[in-house]
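We were asked to recover a plausible sequence for a given structure. The inputs and outputs are reproduced exactly as logged, with field labels preserved.

PROBLEM: sequence recovery
POSITIONS: 263
GIVEN STRUCTURE:
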């Protein structure tokens, strides 16, 4: 099973640690593609800060993020599971997982990154700011760049197991599983039900996805199909509705009524 997550927009900035070593990252087949994005980002952010901020859609009040990108190659790094923060990652709580769940996370969790393509929890990365819908001078669309490069590495990461796709639409655009993987692709949507009406609420969607990942890692079972994943999630206390199988996979709707608990 591979659980594919979106990155967080906000990131913790490591205070100490070795600088980025591309050769040390997982999925080494992506090294060249990673280098091209890094070079384009550093070049942009080493020039006029206002121009870089506009290009990256960074508020002019946060030009420190431009400077962060300019020094991304020399900045300290930390494990990706400590760098990515925010609602989903707070709810997942990598640091407080049991030792067995941490071992599972190492092989079962990956993050789709606009800068690195695919990142494992133990990969050491710096803090950066680059959205999945960005376009960089000399490179073009970041999503388009990864659509051309990410396929083999992502398919290899899935292997013969189930892909549990928890990415947001922006990051789903970086790689779409091919049709032959569809029987083993489960996309998860979280719906908040209140007074008989259902809606997608961003904060609770992210928090619930984090809780789901944590529960799956602690539980340890390795479902091989979307239907079996739905059974596992039901056993773990969620209300799950299974959609029809399509050429893109099977959508699982997790229906939440108590947003504070995620169930």
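RECOVERED SEQUENCE:
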């Amino acid at each position: 099973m591979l659980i594919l997550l979106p990155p967080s927009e906000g990131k913790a900035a490591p205070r100490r640690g070795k600088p980025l070593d591309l050769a040390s990252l997982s999925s080494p087949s992506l090294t060249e593609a990673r280098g091209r994005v890094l070079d384009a980002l550093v070049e942009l952010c080493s020039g006029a800060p206002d121009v870089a901020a506009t290009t990256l859609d960074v508020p002019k009040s946060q030009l420190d993020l431009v400077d962060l990108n300019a020094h991304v190659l020399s900045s300290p790094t930390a494990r990706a599971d400590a760098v990515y923060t925010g609602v989903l990652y707070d709810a997942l709580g990598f640091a407080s997982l049991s030792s067995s769940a941490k071992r599972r996370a190492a092989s079962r969790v990956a993050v789709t990154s606009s800068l690195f393509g695919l990142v494992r929890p133990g990969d050491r990365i710096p803090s950066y700011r680059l959205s999945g819908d960005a376009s960089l001078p000399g490179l073009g669309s970041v999503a388009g760049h990864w659509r051309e490069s990410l396929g083999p590495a992502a398919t290899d990461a899935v292997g013969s197991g189930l892909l549990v796709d928890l990415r947001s639409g922006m990051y789903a655009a970086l790689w779409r599983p091919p049709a032959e993987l569809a029987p083993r692709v489960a996309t998860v949507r979280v719906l908040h039900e209140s007074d008989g009406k259902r809606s997608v609420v961003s904060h609770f969607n992210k928090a619930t996805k984090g809780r789901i990942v944590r529960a799956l890692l602690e539980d340890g079972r390795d479902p091989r199909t979307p239907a079996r994943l739905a059974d596992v999630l039901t056993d773990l206390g969620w209300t799950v509705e299974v959609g029809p199988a399509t050429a893109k996979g099977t959508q699982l709707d997790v229906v939440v009524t108590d947003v504070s608990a995620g169930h």
